[in-house]
From TrEMBL:
Residues 96-123 form a coiled coil. Signal peptide: none annotated. Residues 56-73 have a biased composition (Basic residues). It comes from Nothobranchius kuhntae (Beira killifish). GO terms for cellular component: MLL3/4 complex. This is Myeloid/lymphoid or mixed-lineage leukemia 3b. GO terms for biological process: positive regulation of transcription by RNA polymerase II. PANTHER family: HISTONE-LYSINE N-METHYLTRANSFERASE 2C (PTHR45888:SF1), HL01030P-RELATED (PTHR45888). It is found in: Nucleus. Residues 1-26, 55-85, 132-174 are annotated as: Disordered. Residues 74-85 have a biased composition (Basic and acidic residues). GO terms for molecular function: histone H3K4 methyltransferase activity; transcription coactivator activity; zinc ion binding. The gene is MLL3B. The keyword Transcription regulation applies. The keyword Nucleus applies.
Length: 174
C-alpha cells in the first residue's frame, strides 16, 4: 500500500485462527476458511505487484542499455548518471526477482494447505462452508479474476514462514 508520503508500507499477512486440533464448530471452520482465502488473496496481490515491478525494471533497463549502445556507437561517453541508474535498476531487479520467487514458493505451499484442508473436509463428509474454497494454483503472469486489489509493498514485505512449528505458520488440520 502506498502511504500519503508516497512510500510503500507493509501489508501484514493475516494470522491463522488460533484453536486446537480439529474444529469444534462451524464458526471456527468459517474463520479458518476465511483465513485461507485472505492469505491466498494477499499472496496473489503481492505476486502481481512484484511482476509489474519487474516489468518496469526490465523496461527501464532496456531503455538505458539502448542509450548506452547508442553512445558507444557514436563514440560518446555514457553519462555517469545513466550508468549509476542502470546499475541501480539491475540491482533492484535482482532483489525484486528474489522476492517474487519467495512469493511463488509461499503461494505453492498455501495452495497445498488449501488442498489438504479440502481433502480432509471431503474425507469427513463435510463441505467447506465458503463456496470459493478450492485451490487456485497461480501460473506465473496469470491472475485469477476478482475484485481489484491494493498493491502491497516491496521491501521487507514477505519474510513470512509457512512451515509448521515456525511463528505465523498456518495450523495443519488433524
Amino acid at each position: 500500500v502506498i502511504g500519503s508520503d508516497g512510500k510503500l508500507t507493509q501489508v501484514p499477512r493475516p494470522n491463522p485462527p488460533s484453536f486446537g486440533p480439529g474444529f469444534v464448530n462451524n464458526p471456527q471452520r468459517a474463520q479458518y476458511e476465511e483465513w485461507l482465502q485472505k492469505t491466498q488473496q494477499l499472496l496473489q496481490m503481492q505476486q502481481k505487484f512484484l511482476e509489474e515491478q519487474i516489468g518496469a525494471h526490465r523496461k527501464s533497463k532496456k531503455a538505458l542499455s539502448a542509450k548506452q549502445r547508442t553512445a558507444k556507437k557514436a563514440g560518446r561517453e555514457f553519462p555517469e548518471e545513466d550508468a549509476e541508474q542502470l546499475k541501480h535498476v539491475t540491482e533492484q531487479q535482482g532483489v525484486v526477482q528474489k522476492q517474487l520467487e519467495q512469493i511463488r514458493k509461499q503461494q505453492k505451499e498455501h495452495a497445498e494447505l488449501i488442498e489438504e484442508y479440502r481433502v480432509k473436509q471431503q474425507q469427513n463428509n463435510m463441505t467447506p462452508l465458503m463456496p470459493g474454497m478450492h485451490p487456485v494454483t497461480a501460473t506465473p503472469g496469470m491472475m485469477p479474476s476478482g475484485p481489484p486489489m491494493v498493491q502491497p509493498p516491496t521491501n521487507a514485505m514477505m519474510q513470512i514462514p509457512l512451515h509448521p512449528g515456525q511463528p505465523n505458520a498456518p495450523p495443519r488440520m488433524p
